Amino acid sequence: MVNVPESLPARMFLLAYDLRKGRMSKGGARLGWVLRGAALTELYLDGRLGEERRRPVPGTPGDDPYGLVAQIRESRPRSWQHWVRKDAKAMVETVRDELARGGWIRVRDRRALGLFPRKEVAVKDPRIVKALWGGASSALRGRPVAHVNSYDAAAVALAAAGGLDTVLPKADRRRHKRRIGELTARTGPAPTAVHKVIGQYEAALASG
């Protein structure tokens, strides 16, 4: 049996890896928004975050591995979308470094076009990504929603919100729209916030 990372952000990072192309399918702010959404979702599912007036609030005391609860506690009330956007690029670096230290991935420094520095990521054991895919696929097509593993349900909700074609190609997102909606409702507010943030970003790009 293949062991997978325990944290939801780490799982979503690996799910964004394209095994066929041997590289990350998403990067920059978009991946950061998904990872921030994953961290918020993990806290929400574990009861460490709650919701009041459609805004996240601190819940039951506990671990705060990425410091989000502390950020929310020290700030005035803000929307889920605000917390999805905040420090998104830094979140990518944090989760990437976490996975590298744990031996899940290998990171190398490269230069795009020989000029621009970038990080090249390689997953060490493809079976880990395949196991995560299997969990998401089972959540999408298998047992009743109420009986789906909460992290597998969250993986589907976040992948759909973030447009991760490695997990859910566009055709599958259309075909399973109702099921995705049910899994998203079970997962909490963060995936919907990710979807809205990306929608706003794409609308801004389209308008020039």
UniProtKB/TrEMBL annotation:
Entry GO terms, CC: cytoplasm; endomembrane system
Membrane topology of this protein? Peripheral membrane protein
A molecular function GO annotation? phosphatidylinositol-4-phosphate binding
Instruction: List the InterPro entries.
Output: GPP34-like, GPP34-like_sf
Q: Which UniProt keywords are given for this protein, alphabetically ordered? A: Golgi apparatus, Lipid-binding, Membrane
Where does it localize?
A: Golgi apparatus membrane
Protein name according to UniProt: Golgi phosphoprotein 3 GPP34
Organism (species) = Actinomadura hallensis
